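#onboarding

Welcome to the new folks! Below is a worked example of what a typical request in this channel looks like: someone posts a single protein sequence, and someone else replies with the predicted structure as tokens. Don't worry about understanding the tokens yet, we'll cover that in week two.

Example request:
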Amino acid sequence: MKIDKIETFFVDRYLVCRITTDDGTQGVGESCYWSYPKAAEQTIHAVGQALIGMDPGDIEHIWNYIWRYNSNFRGNSIGGAVSAIDMALWDIKGKRLSAPVWDLLGGKVRHKVRAIAQGVNNDSPENAARDAKKWQDEGFTAVKLTPMQKDWPDMPYSQMLKMGVDIVAAVRETVGWEMDIAIDIHRNMQPHEAVAFCEEIEKFRLYFVEDPIVPDSVVAMSEVADKMRVPLAVGERNVGVWEFREYAQLTNCAFFKPDIAVAGGITGTKKIATIAEAHHIKICPHNFQGPIATAANIALAVSCPSWDVQESVGEHESPRRDMVDEIMKLENGWYTPSDRPGLGVEFNEEAAGAFPFDPAKVAPPIREDGSVALR
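Example response:
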């Protein structure tokens, strides 16, 4: 079996890679360099020509070959390309051997995967509490929210902190102690603000606080982590095992947040999960893209001891639902792994025509004085 063709498709902003072998077997993967997906697409095609004729079963070799191609550059366009290709190769291997990917990774360490709900309105404490209760009523035992209103860049320091504390307090009061609450600050705070905020919300027993500051520097994140007394989660923007190694050594974090569609695919994320296991760190992957990435996550989740919870997005809604023939089963806040060969999903090529490319255009917030808000 040889790699014969590598194709890419956009479904809205979701970038899908499909690899076809010379005997017609097809595998699919997904990239999550969502800010600049065209860059990841071009990288897939740039390295793809060099993969034609290779054995798709040599996944580890191909992963290293792509990573070191063209003089060993690094970055998210490369990570996004490697990830999509890697998933597709694992999908092919599973289909070739008539086995689910999780079985090829060593079998199950758990039979289902706990989901953490997302999608909580943060424009007021009341609305945040209402949405969290809705997820609790649907069976979820964990929820993640961002306690930052849209106008946070123009708020005085004390008002911003109070607003965030009020949102967290309202959610905890509403869902009680039977539900885990995670906070994603979305890189919206300066180091001193994050430390002060974490001190005030410590009493609410948060599951973790994610990305309190911009991930420009592992050293800067470690300085914040040293002063925090709540569990830290990091890594959704990071690529490759080497950056996660530094987080494990320097930040004393409680959770890794690798995005399987940018951090290195199944091969790379499996290694990240092993680093996590060696440091008693849990995995809660960043996952807000499409159902192919979710399928790859679930394959790892049932086979990796360090996996903890799986971020849940609305895959029953368009255009995500239209991308594949069958989404991962999610019931009462738990994912059930598929027993189908490969990743367990088949790409619907017609979705690419139904939902043309729609690039992300997320401008940074601008303060009243005209400066860019880095919080």
